[in-house]
Specification:
Shape: globular
Number of helices: 5
Distance between the termini: 17 Å
Structural class: alpha+beta
Strand content: 15-25%
Largest sheet: 3 strands, antiparallel
Helix content: 40-55%
Number of strands: 5
Strand order of the largest sheet: 1-3-2
Order of helices and strands: HHEHEEHEEH
């Protein structure tokens, strides 16, 4: 629990209280497992998982199974990225301080598909973040 809380706090640059709430939810969802089935999540929980996937905490996967009647069944799941989480727990997100302006800036990230999305699509993340 401590590792997950520290990882979330360091990576997302949020308060201890918010980080602990998110960590508690994640640990409750996964329990003692490394992966969970996607269909147990509510839509707002899934949005949080997508955010955590973008930050490197989780990855997704899927498996195909054949049912007894011959149909194929697809199972989607989420998996913890243990190595990344341990790294995030011990390394704070780098912040550059502009000496002349006295302001803090996060280092520039390489562009991703998420940066091309409109602000409207991120509204659910903002709302969820305010409730945590």
């Amino acid at each position: 629990m401590t590792i997950m809380t520290n990882a979330i706090k360091n990576r997302l640059d949020i308060s201890d209280i918010k980080a602990k709430k998110i960590a508690t939810f994640i640990m409750d969802a996964f329990g003692f497992e490394n992966r969970i089935i996607d269909n147990i999540l509510k839509p707002d929980e899934r949005q949080l998982f997508y955010m955590l996937e973008a930050e490197g905490f989780l990855t997704t996967g899927r498996e195909r199974s054949r049912l007894h009647d011959g149909r194929e069944w697809m199972t989607h799941y989420w998996q913890l990225q243990h190595t990344q989480i341990k790294h995030f727990a011990t390394h704070k997100k780098k912040i550059f301080i502009n000496q002349s302006a006295g302001t803090k800036k996060h280092p520039k990230k390489t562009p991703s598909i998420y940066s091309s999305l409109s602000e409207d699509l991120w509204l659910s993340r903002k709302i969820l973040n305010q409730h945590l």
